[in-house]
Specification:
By secondary structure, the chain is an alpha+beta fold. The chain is 32% helix and 30% strand. Strands 1-2-5-4-3-12 form a six-stranded antiparallel β-barrel. It has a six-stranded antiparallel β-barrel with strand order 6-7-8-11-10-9. A two-stranded antiparallel ribbon has the order 13-16. The longest helix is centred in the N-terminal third of the chain and has 79 residues. The protein starts with a helix and ends with a strand.
């Protein structure tokens, strides 16, 4: 419809009529003359309104559900973060307890040998300087560390310092094939030289080819001139195998080291040698032997059978008794 004078006049009349009907409906109250028309309209348009409402409400509910789901997801993510943080804290506490035990054990070892040590943490492992078995520690020249100092931990000999930087140092491990240290047997004082063999036991050549050695014997460092690179008395390991003596000038042993070179964390660099050789005092206590049970069988006298033999089936106190002696 074009916007003409007649159309505008028609619009004004319709608006005026609508206002008139509204006024009559309000004044009429329950007896309004247009109540019938309103009910008829409700009958016609009510189902349509309900349908529209039914169609719209699920959408609204879905939107609310999505919004609530987002809130739940955020809360779940927050709980997961809190759980991860708690696990990290617990893991850190476990690690700190482990390191505290390592440090305590190392201090006891240093105290037993009267070694002055500088504690350090292993921060790297690898072949940065061309060695096969090395570690890097977080102390260096600024901490008084020098080349050819002995490195130990709570278990025993770790290695020796080979390269020193301002704040770090490289340690050649006793397991390296290029590593050699003088050793002394516990009690017998037999001397030898131990060499690394990677992940295999240390190889020790005793200077005395006729030395009496057996599995389970223990070795410590013999010490070097002026205590460099090795101080005396540091536990090295336990004899695990002895080659048969073939009349050679030396005798070969294989020694399981006390130190686990793949689990190094806290170590100590010996910056001050002991005033005197601690000998075997730094060695750990020997494990107590497990008692071997023995069985004693006691046969109680029984009634003789018809042939004069002793019966073992019907004895007065139940037959065979066994005693186990520890």
């Amino acid at each position: 419809m074009r916007d003409t004078r007649e159309s505008r006049l028609l619009l004004v009349l319709l608006v005026a009529t609508a206002f008139a009907l509204i006024t009559v409906d309000i004044r009429g109250g329950e007896d309004s003359p247009v109540d019938g028309a309103r009910q008829a309209a409700a009958t016609v348009f009510g189902p349509i309104q309900d349908g529209v409402s039914s169609a719209v409400d699920p959408v609204g509910n879905a939107i609310s559900a999505v919004r609530d789901s987002g809130d739940r997801h955020d809360r779940l993510a927050e709980l997961e973060r809190e759980n991860a943080a708690l696990k990290a804290k617990l893991g850190s506490d476990d690690r700190n307890r482990s390191r505290a035990r390592q440090l305590d054990k190392m201090l006891k070892t240093a105290g037993a040998g009267q070694y002055g040590i500088k504690g350090a943490e292993v921060i790297a492992i690898g072949a940065a300087q061309g060695f096969s078995w090395t570690i890097t520690i977080d102390v260096g020249a600024d901490d008084g560390i020098q080349r050819d100092m002995t490195v130990l931990n709570g278990d025993g000999l770790v290695g020796r310092v080979t390269t020193v930087g301002p704040s770090t140092a490289t340690v050649l491990l006793a397991s390296d094939p290029d590593f050699t240290v003088g050793t002394r047997m516990e009690n017998s004082d037999e001397l030898g030289f131990a060499s690394g063999q990677g992940d295999r036991p240390l190889r020790v050549e005793l200077l005395n080819g006729k030395a009496e050695v057996k599995k389970g014997d223990r070795l410590v460092t013999f010490g070097s001139q002026a205590d460099r690179p090795f101080v005396p008395g540091v536990p090295v390991g336990v004899v695990s195998r002895v080659d048969p003596s073939g009349g050679d000038l030396t005798r070969t042993l294989y020694v399981t080291p006390y130190v686990s070179f793949s689990k190094l964390d806290i170590v100590g660099v010996v910056v001050q040698a002991p005033a005197k050789d601690p000998r075997d005092t730094v060695l750990p206590p020997r494990p107590k032997p497990t008692p071997t049970p023995t069985v004693t069988v006691t046969v109680t006298p029984g009634a003789e059978d018809a042939e004069g033999t002793v019966g073992t089936g019907d004895t007065a106190d139940g037959g065979v008794q066994q005693e186990q002696e520890q």
